[in-house]
Amino acid sequence: MLTLASKLKREEGVGAGRTSAGSNEASHRVSIRDRLLIKGTNHCPNTPPTFANLLFHCKYLLNVNLFYEGYYLGGKFQFEIEVPEAYNMVPPRVKCLTRIWHPNIAETGEICLSLLREHSIDGTGWAPTRTLKDVVWGLNSLFTDLLNFDDPLNIDAAEHHLRDKEDFRNKVQDFIKNYAR
């Protein structure tokens, strides 16, 4: 498996003027995306090792434990994060791999999180100054302060919450018990 760290070390070893015979220096360059990923994950103390090790496709496991409160306490939710070649000019693509009953996550895994929008009217969307640390923070916040029933992606979940909060809580706990342990 090719990792960012090994790719950067290889480039440093090749360096300017030290290319091996027959190799093309351009093929050994590390992209801006790769450098940003290394820099970004070095500053994320709570990211699992697999997060920094893969070039542009990784999984993030969010464990909603005692630091959280609310509907999703006790759940473990897995997210797939794909970082496109044009990163940091475009946002990563994120999908929830765990079945979940959530107003801002569709049953197919799509996520409604403003910072993942490439174009945003209100200015809260993706910007080149954002990092993967912001994405991880945003995913964590979907289970606490960014839980939004007023602008849902999963309309059925939001309406369920409006109709019967206790039944909504029970359904969330059923999903956690069956899919997120």
From TrEMBL:
This is E2 NEDD8-conjugating enzyme. PANTHER family: UBIQUITIN-CONJUGATING ENZYME E2. Pathway: Protein modification; protein neddylation. Residues 25-181 form the UBC core domain. Belongs to the ubiquitin-conjugating enzyme family. Its EC number is 2.3.2.34. The keyword Membrane does not apply. Gene3D superfamilies: Ubiquitin Conjugating Enzyme (3.10.110.10). Keywords: ATP-binding, Nucleotide-binding, Transferase, Ubl conjugation pathway. GO terms for molecular function: ATP binding; NEDD8 conjugating enzyme activity. The keyword Kinase does not apply.
